[in-house]
Amino acid sequence: MISLKGKINALYLVAFFLNLHIALPTYVNSTFLSGFIEEKFIGIIYIIGALLSVIVFIAIPNLLTRFGNFKIAITILGLETLAIISLALTQNPIYILIAFISSIGLIRIATFNADIFLESLSTDSQTGSIRGFFLSASNMAWVVSPILAGLILGNNNNYAWLYIITALVAIPVVIIFFRKFGRFKDPVYEHIPFWGTLKIIFRSRDDIRKIFIANVMLRFFYSWMVIYTPIYLHQYIGFGWDEIGLIFSIMLIPFVVLGIPLGKIADKYLGEKELLSIGFIIMAISTAYLSFINSSSFIVWALILFITRVGASTVDVMSEIYFFKKIDAGDSNLLGFFRMTGPLAYIFGPFLATLILLLINIQYIFLVLGILMLWGLRYSLTLKDTL
Questions:
Q1: How confident is the model at residue 297 (pLDDT cuts 50, 70, 90)?
Q2: With contact defined as beta carbons under 8 Å apart, do 210 and 202 qualify?
Q3: pLDDT band, very low/low/confident/very high, at 366 (cuts 50, 70, 90)
Q4: Which one in 126, 226, 368, 373 has a CA-CA gap of 20 to 30 Å to 216?
Q5: How far, in Å, CA of 49 to CA of 99, rounded?
Q6: How big is the CA angle at 116 (ends 280 and 86), to the nearest 5 degrees?
Q7: First-to-last C-alpha distance (Å) of the chain
Q8: What b-and-e string marks burial along 167-186, b requiring 16 or more CB atoms within 10 Å of the CB?
Q9: Helix pair angle (42-67, 341-357), 10° resolution
């Protein structure tokens, strides 16, 4: 019999390896695609992948009821890993684009499956602490992955090896799922149609609606930064991948060090509203400032990007904690919509960026993004704290 603590600790390992699997290629994907498609149209590929995610998320309540979370998790992760392997083995642009779209479309579902496992083990009084540890384990993978990716790519841009190693990292996740959750007892999942769930979010549950939109804003921020920051640093500022990898690892440190303390603060001392708002302000100011950096100094770029992620990590942790205090494991429809904020942001974000890049230089896309982040205050400042 596997103890509750043992399962939770196993999910912390899942958080690390699953996010390492996701993160290793994330910051080089756009540069990899630039070898097959013009950079101003790369966002379209992300949009198509996000649309695939949305379609699967719409179908997920029915799939969970029919097959259960364990079978869905193993199947989705297996298919996504095959797509990653395909990126390493083929040079055909059509196959590469299909594999890439499949990978970014399916991987979000795997993180959703891990959420269901974790939420089934959490109580409201422990949500902040458990989610804080879970997010810190996840974010540790994001910190080490840029350095690893830079070392793997080297000076020869060896993308094939990067994608092969990315695929291998999924193996521990599959093993843990089989050993710890092979006999997972699924909760009774809410079975509310797509439009019915939208009605719940935007009419009946004001707190859910606001945190939903705040999370869309955060994912919108990620969509622009993930796609366009590597291109800008590599092709316009002139950094090599070894430098970019180290810059990104420094940039992502706040996600590791802030998750646990912010989770405890949200549980015991201070509500989510204030911290969420502070996070949006830091994101807005520091991101806008990127457009005015004329220096090619490693330290300058690492420091400012680090500050952007202090804000983003605060928003990330607070939005996660707030949302999961409002639901339970059976609310698969609401959880699915919450995780759908990522794909939705990757539809609207790259689409808007593509239009903007037809009018302005890529340098000023950060200024536009910073201004847009101020819109998040409209929702964070009107939240009702859970304390």
A1: very high
A2: no
A3: very high
A4: 126
A5: 10
A6: 85
A7: 35
A8: bebbebbbebbeebbeebeb
A9: 170
pLDDT, tens only, 214-232 = 888 999 999 899 888 988 9
Assign residue 96 the CATH number of its domain. 1.20.1250.20
Rounded to an integer, what distance in angstroms lies between the CA atom of residue 137 and that of residue 196? 34
Q: CA 169 to CA 73: how far, in whole Å?
A: 16
- Classify residue 70: in a domain, yes or no: yes
CB atoms within 10 A of CB 231: 17
pLDDT at 63 over 60: yes
pTM of the model: 0.76
Map 150-190 to HEC letters: HHHHHHHCCHHHHHHHHHHHHHHHHHHHHHHHCCCCCCCCC
Burial track 104-122 (b if 16+ CB lie within 10 A, e otherwise): bbbbbbbbbbbbbbbbbeb
The whole-number pLDDT of residue 204 equals 54
Of the pLDDT bands very low, low, confident and very high (cuts 50, 70, 90), residue 135 is: confident
169 vs 162: CA distance, rounded Å: 11
Residue 221, in any domain of the structure: yes
Could you tell me how many helices (H) and strands (E) the chain has, helices first? 17, 0
In a domain, 130, yes or no: yes
Distance in angstroms (rounded) separating the CA atoms of residues 284 and 137: 26
Residue 39 has pLDDT above 80, yes or no: no
In angstroms, the CA 367 to CA 291 distance is 6
